[in-house]
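Hi everyone,

Forwarding the result from last night's run.
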Amino acid sequence: RPTGKTMLRGQPVPEGYWHIVVGIWTVTADGRLLLTRRHPDKAWGLQWENTGGSVVAGEDSFHGALRELREETGLVADPEHVRLLSSEKTDRFFFDNYLYLCPEREPRLTLQPEEVVEACFVELSELDAWKERLCPPALERLKENRGAIEKAAAACRAG
């Protein structure tokens, strides 16, 4: 439940509190997965990931995921096309993963330069070749949600 307290970015989460982190996997209308490349100054710099980040004060995880998607990629998702894939609670974080079924085959991206330096759309059949390039948190979340992502991508390809 919300505490009404705020934390400063980069500060450790105090004992007895949890921080909400979100990830959002974007699948295009032709079934490809959006991956973005992290800015070199960030942890796991220049590695690839799905869109995501921390929620801000007063925001729930769903709206945080929509905001992160908009900020990092310029994509404005219709909430009807976004659904929760999974939730995880660790010792200090709640991590919610969402799936965005983008109705476009080639959505126009506007990258947030201080967060993302590159983006690409990957065929799911090529994901195994990307494992070494994904940052560890993204790889872990992909393993947890891959079946649901692949099922959604297959449905998109089928029309």
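The chain has a mean pLDDT of 91.

Cheers,
N.
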